[in-house]
Amino acid sequence: MTHKIYTVITFAPVQGFIEKSRKLRDLYGSSYLLSYLSWIICNVAKSQGCRVISPALPNVSQGMPNQIIIEGNFSEEDAKSALNIGWKCVTEICREWIELQVTGEWRYEPWKRIWGLWTKYSWEFFWVQTPQKESDAANKTNIKTDTISYVRELLNEKKRSRAWTAINWQGESSTLSGADAIAYPGLGEISKPNEYNYQKERTAIKKFNAQLSQKLGESFIDATPNINVPKDKKAERSQEYGESFIDPDEELSVPELIKRLITHKVIVKEIVNLLKKRLKERFGEEAIANQEAFAEIDKLPQDLNPDSFKDVSRPKKKKIADTYKLIQYNDFQGWFQGDGDKAGDYLKRFANTSEEGERINQFSEQMREWGKHFHKNSPESCRVVYAGGDDFLGVFYDTGKENQRLQPQHCVDYFSTFKSKIWHQNEDINQNNPKKKPITVSVGFVWAGSSIPQRDVLQHCRLAEKSAKNKGRDRIAFRVLFNNGNYLEWVCPWWLLEQRLLSSYCDRERNSQKPKQNWTHIYNDVAVLESRHAFKERSTEIAFGLLEVYFPVQIVDIIKDENNWLHDHNADLTVVNAGILGNRQNYTIDNTEVGTLNQTKVNEAINDWIINLAKVGFHLCQQ
Asked: Is 488 helix (H, G, I), strand (E, B) or coil?
């Protein structure tokens, strides 16, 4: 029997600059950069006759995960070289483009050393492969070493021993991450600490950023034939477009600046051209044979032009009544972040079996096909930031059209059928749906004021998604975020939401046919009852009585049925309904799977669930 060789590769940023985001463009840049580097490694592996098991669909360059599973003998030297070539093309082009475009008084010699350090020390790289000889430990325990599971275990062990180099600097740190130096031509210049002038440096940084921003806008206009700007207006338009890439007041580090620059189509075109040249020199003609995939990489920034961000941009310091100006039309936006549940556990079912590789490939292909479909078929008034497979991020925004302001009800309606119609792509509710996913999904949705910093909104998105997972998975957490940082949250399993729970609400007028129901009624009742401490820990009578007033009997009966409250820790949620309150283990006296239920804790949780239903329903469903 032929001894199969599997290679598993992953990489990660040393300083965590990928996750630091202030603008939507930061998120696109992060996703694009990881996908670009992953794609290069996969492309080189395929050119050497290896089979890429995961990620599937390597021609789809967007949303590529940074853990790569390959069948074949793909050497560590070649894998690392592919990563380094891709990253070096990015850093070289970004630095050289700035130096050629932003001229005048600036001396660029000092910062070249720092850019060189970022080129060399930005990424941790991990590579493991099926061992040529079985270890003594493996022989004694009868562990099969020629399986993907075994090689992934080796990767996890290797990742425990970190080996990376941090980059030191003089001066102030980036205002985005606070972890690295601000990128400007004086970066890396040796100076005496007692002669350091903070205000002088800040003035220089702001001046440099203003010139860079202007050049980015100017270059974008020159490269976009369908933008007709009069000569006397070009400087003004260049400033406006340039600020969508970088604001003069921002103080970004080298990698943070790179994330912005790689969303500029002129710069990406130069990166792709240099990449083709370097890959051909190192790996031969086969490494650049897939021209279709190179075109995909080159095409992505076309979606990131400043005009395409106008509906989701943050408020400007000045608002100019002008068709080019990026303005905010509405006070709120709806952000959502989701992730598949227990994908690793699902794949473990096939660990150390003959079909493991095929199953991983099928699952990867299924999820990446879904991500591709979701990205291309995003809902009305919605932008999908990324959809790499089972993880995704997007935002509902106001288009600015008359009488079409974004309402939270629009978002609620969309998520009320998300699992069946979007996740499972089952518009007709077909019992034998071939596109049904083998895992469930959890989503965090945040309805947030536009004046709230975007990084805070994104943090709440992550926390809302985490809340959905912690409270049982296979559900959505609706979170209403206020300008002062306070928030309301209500978490509901998909199956109950799809029973038309929210749309079945009926106010005190008892006219269920009325198109707009008044959620103020239940909201005020909850406020009065809370002020009188009516919700008792040991009783759910008041809470259920409230439900009976405002919801139809069939909905109330479902919620009152204690069999629907909790699910077992190991329950297969693709087969059984998730509990309204989630995992039973969270409500036992000793926090174990088989422990005795703490009934007081359960009653308190169901009371809170009904209270939060009223509060969040008022903010999201009141019309």
From this structure: strand
pLDDT tens-digit profile of 186-213?
A: 888 867 777 778 788 889 999 999 999 9
Cα distances from 159 to residues 87, 128, 162, in angstroms, run 21, 10, 6
CA atoms of 305 and 309, how far apart (whole Å): 7
The CA distance from 603 to 615, in Å, is 19
Burial class of 427 by CB neighbour count within 10 A (0 to 12, 13 to 18, 19+): exposed
CATH code, 287: 3.30.70
Position 329 scores a pLDDT of 43
Residue 442 lies in a domain: yes
Q: Can you give the pLDDT at residue 175?
A: 62
Residue at which a domain ends, from 498, 524, 541: 498
Same-domain status, 425 and 365: yes
Q: How many domains does the structure of the chain reveal?
A: 3
The model's pTM:
0.88
Residue reference for tokens 């709440």? 460
Our CA angle for 438, 440, 441, nearest 5°, is 135
Q: Is residue 555 part of a domain?
A: yes
Strand order in the sheet with 67-71: 51-54, 67-71, 6-13, 123-129
**Model pLDDT, residue 66:** 80
One domain, residues 558 and 485 = no
- Written as one letter, the residue type at 469 is K
| Domain co-membership, 482 together with 379 | yes
Contact 115, 254 (CB under 8 A): yes
- The pLDDT of residue 325: 34
Segments forming the whole domain that contains residue 342: 329-498
Per-residue pLDDT at 300: 62
Same domain, 262 and 354: no
- pLDDT tens for 240-251 read 889 889 989 888
- Is 400 in the same domain as 510? no
Residues 287 and 269 in one domain: yes
pLDDT given at position 177: 59
Tens-digit pLDDT profile for residues 442-453: 999 999 987 888
pLDDT at residue number 324: 32
The kind and range of the H/E element at 69 are strand 67-71
Q: Which parts of the chain sit beneath pLDDT 50?
A: 1, 136-137, 140, 310-311, 314-330
Quick one: 472 and 376 in the same domain?
Answer: yes
| Residue 172 confidence (pLDDT) | 65
Contact 447, 457 (CB under 8 A): no
- Distance, in Å, from the CA atom of 484 to the CA atom of 479, rounded to the nearest integer, reads 14
Distance CA 232, CA 253 (A): 34
Task: From 498, 529, 544, give the residue that closes a domain.
Answer: 498
Burial code (b: 16+ CB inside 10 Å, e: under 16) for 391-424 equals: bbbbbbbbeeeeeeebbbebbbebbbbbbbebbb
Same domain, 487 and 587: no
The CATH number given to whatever domain includes residue 409 is: 3.30.70.270
Angle at 490 between CA 510 and CA 586, to 5 degrees: 125
Q: Is residue 236 part of a domain?
A: no
218 domain residue, yes or no: no
- Length of the chain measured in residues: 623
Q: Which of 327, 316, 335, 339 is nearest to 457 (CA)?
A: 335
Q: Using CB atoms within 10 A of its CB, is residue 547 exposed (0-12), middle (13-18) or buried (19+)?
A: buried
Sort 510 into a burial class: Cβ within 10 Å, 0-12 / 13-18 / 19+. exposed
Amino acid at 132: Q
